[in-house]
Amino acid sequence: MKKAVVVFSGGQDSTTCLVQALKDYDEVHxxxxxxxxxxxxxxxxxxxxxxxxxxxxxxxxxxTLLNELAISSxxxxxxxxxxxxxxxxxxxxxxxGRNILFLxxxxxxxxxxxxxxxxxxxCETDFSGYxxxxxxFIQSMSKTxxxxxxxELTLVTPLMWLDKAETWALADQYDALELVRNKTLTxxxxxxxxxxxxxxxxxxxxxxxxxxxxxxERVNLSLESKQNx
Length: 229
Known about the structure:
Blueprint: E1 3-7, H1 12-24, E2 27-34, H2 41-52, E3 57-62, H3 65-69, H4 98-113, E4 117-119, H5 135-149, E5 154-156, H6 164-173, H7 177-183, H8 200-214, H9 216-228
Parallel strand pairs: 1-2, 1-4, 2-3, 4-5
């Protein structure tokens, strides 16, 4: 029996990964992290989507300690999400250590439930400039988890080399485009669906959707090529 754990935030990327995992694995566990994020609605959205998609095992884990340590516009209400990069070249929405913590805990959870894969929706092709979304980080993290637990565990990143238009195409491939568009929460300002339309996350999401809708044949061919490579 193939088992997987999906790191699930209720956003576009992780929901697309969850939809795919439910087709590809016999048993799927979703894990959502409460890290004191700016919009608690994320957790409610994740719970609602997991239920709608028929996920039998959905765990919400309290890791609010991260909120005390990591200062970011996503962990502090008094810091406005900015389009400008900080002096260190990173967006102020970057939460330092977030994916290190999330993947470590998801790996431990996978160990306990006997899953061979942890699936995460990180992406290097069309991403927000976060260093912990790069493939080099995932490869390093995978090696660390395998060494630390002396067990073969694969970190699966279905979106790593897809642009946002191709991510929309992938959701459509699984007949989930409307669900992802209307019921996920990607917006940094906490608005479900198409979001506020102004924050960096909404801009990336909208540009990708427009690119897919206006060039479906080309985008689907590109997605197919990447899936077969």
